[in-house]
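Support case: protoporphyrin IX containing FE complex. Customer-provided input:
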Amino acid sequence: MPVNLSNTKPLAWDSANLNADTKAMLDNLQPNILQGHVREHLSVLFLHFGNAADGKRLLRGLVPLMKSARRHLEEVREFNTSKAPGTPYVGVGISKLGYLKLGHSTTSFTDDAFKSGLKRRKDTLNDPFVSAWEKPYQEEIHAVVLVGDATAEPVAATRERVLALLPATVKVVGEETGLGQRNPAGNGIEHFGYIDGRSQPLFLADQVAAERGVNWEPFFPLSHVLVADPLAPRPERHFGSYLVFRKLEQNVRAFREAEEQLADGLGLTGKDRALAGAMLVGRFRNGTPLRLHGKPSSDGHPVQNDFSYRDDPGSKCPVGAHIRKANPRDSRDGGLERVLGVMMARRGQTYGTRTDAPWDDAPPETRPTGGVGLLFMAFNSSIQSQFEFTQQSWADNSGFPREGTGNDPITGQGSRDTKIRLPKAWGSDKLSAPQSEVPQTVTMKGGEYFFTPSLAYLKSL
Ligand code: HEM
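Agent response - structure generated as follows:
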């Protein structure tokens, strides 16, 4: 029996009844795709291969440092039962140019965006010119190695082991260091101060059992992230995923100023001023979804994710809020998002250190204007119809979901000249006077598209 990518039930990865191909898939799939791997500390190495033989030697040499998706899931279970710490995550992605350098043809890859490479997608994504990207990203990047764990030491030690494997002709052209940020409640946040990484497509039975609600179905079939690894010994059981990597710098001061201006424009006072930022993001800083509450009322409770926009024309969560633009859930057609199959597995990490407290109300002038941001990473089965579709047709499209919506206030790129009207009060059908769109405060600094191949492929080199 082949691996069923259109599975209608979440995958019970530990079931004794799995067919041989599915077992082999889990034993050869890299971790962090089906379920996020802890990566509070993260080292990202971008590599250039001098020649095919050395590139292959390195990739083969990395295998003993890596573990399978199955091993990762077992480690998570062991940690949950006995607090036994897991091993570091080592992940590998290869770019289109990397495959060509290794002497492989890329014609059997299914994704045209991957086969173009990120540098050639500027017009699709409204990205800055490559000449404006940070220097390492202007280089030809053949592979990325990700090393992640809960603490700094194992990451540093594993990074050293990776570096020790590099043949002389394999160069590190760039490096990023991811560092998780947490609010006082211990939740992971991004640099504007908001809880991030909460809403994800879930693929595994134990994850779905822990999350299941009545308004939003978090289960998605494997086809959302997995594709056959076309160069593996047995593509019918060896799978991989397309990885988008984009360095997104955040101007926190400018974003906080925009929040303040919007609060003024809407006449919000006192504690209610937090509504302005929530209208941009779709959640309050502590993760409370605006769709469900007009105040950050879930303090002390798990961050809610069981909601749809079915009965909210935009009076509770504005249609232009980041989370609603990026995942309209079933606000139209009773399941637009699900039909289009857009949801990707976001696995990003913040970068840069802070001396201020990102979650508090300290004034904008105390906030950084650069040097901090998000290493945006997402796994897709089609970069074109998932990441690129989200960026181009939703975030950068001021007419989505309807005229007058404006760009995605967080990730939208391109002109921002729509005058937007927001609810006068939470849940009110009355609209505010037209407001200017908030300025763009997230800047793309470079990145690349990769394929994260199966372990079987890496071993075969
Ligand atoms: C610096 C850049 C970004 C920041 C600060 C940011 C921030 C956030 C925050 C605070 C959330 C809410 C937490 C959650 O529901 O998981 C969120 C959710 C989300 N973001 Fe972003 N984001 C950024 C970039 C992007 C990009 C580039 C994309 C895709 C093009 C994206 C897609 C999404 C999606 C799909 C969700 C989940 C929405 C849902 O299912 O409700 N984000 N983001």
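DSSP finds 15 helices and 14 strands in the chain.

Case will auto-close in a few days if no follow-up is received.
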